[in-house]
Amino acid sequence: MEGIRGQKDIGGGTKDLSALAVGCLAAWCAVAGIERPTVTFYVSPRGNDAAKGTKTSPVKTIQKAVNLARGVMSDAKREVIVGDGEYEIAEPIRIGADDCDLTIRAQHPGKAVVTGKVRLKGWTRDPEDKRFFVAKLPFEPEFGMTYALTCNGEDRAIAAWPEKGRMKYESVVDQLVISYPTNAFPQGAGLNALDLQSVWLELPQEWDTTRTLIATNDVAARRFSLKKKAAISFKTFNHGFVMLNARLGLTQPGQWMYEAAKHRVVYWPKDGERPSAADIRLTRAKSVFACKSARGVTIRGLVLEGNASSFVRTNPYDANAPLAAVILSGNCEDCTLEDCEIRHSASAGVHAVKPERCLVKDCHIHDIGGNGIRFFDGGSRSDVIGCDVHDYGKTTAAACGVSMQAAKVRCIGNHI
Q1: Residues 242-261: what's their mean pLDDT?
Q2: Whose CB has fewer CB within 10 Å in the chain, the N or C terminal residue?
Q3: CA distances for 183 relative to 225, 250, 336, angstroms
């Protein structure tokens, strides 16, 4: 059946006839025992998005190949084969209702890297402190965003004070104003010079973590006013706070921070490291794949990395705008993530809202800011099988390796 495209109002609602027709034809072929043909598109780092996506004329980006596959108007299966190499993205690859029964796979598992990281260049000595090096931010930092930094493929810790434990507070007013004792910060900490565009506080609170910028900094009164109200009562569930991304948190080599006001990154290199010769990268993309209302989509064999995170929280219950993760999923059915490596994320690895019959299998998920894998707010019959999840919760205390808030789920044979 050819030429089925467009939308039509049915019973007061809008339905996508192409997705409906493909689904019906797929079901009919399965019943009839007919093998459906496959239409394949190819991607290469040396490709051209003006090309046709054939094996000899590949496109350059995965999103372009997905768009080409979306235009196939038949009962054929659709496949995108990703060639070896690195694919840098600034925006997520978007998968939706028009992409049913689509497979995106690495030509050779583990050899295709889709990265939301960008390399930092032009390192010079920090004029304020010769122990440190500085480089310009290669993009405009967004309000409320946090990032992760890697050096030669290894995660580096963001500046934090205290490095371990929490600072105690003397009093809290309406969960918005924190007063701290005189000994909370070291002598000469330079609190008057705090960059309020960059520094934030983390308030670990039982099952949740509030992260917020500082609205006002009254050094004389030893008081911070918060940009955002703490999520949970301090008295019951919180016993302190941590200051992140401030110079006073740079206490040992291998730590870093960024200064939004000066539009630069500050890094304290480890012994033997030369920033000008090292591969130092900062995460940028808000996610790598953003899947909404997709059905029957498979992602296999890719390395996925490099997303930033926002602590200006979206509604975690909203499938149209779930929290940040390398893989974002909302209201998806019968989708599979298999044999993928997910790494270097400032937020979560996989965040799926209301997944139905979805599967995460044989994936290696590590160096993650938040949860490794999270099924959230309903859905059912979704499984996590044979995954290796470690080094998660790097930027939030309230994180799990695997969290499954859904019905009839299975978590089998995982190493967490």
Answers
A1: 93
A2: N
A3: 19, 18, 52
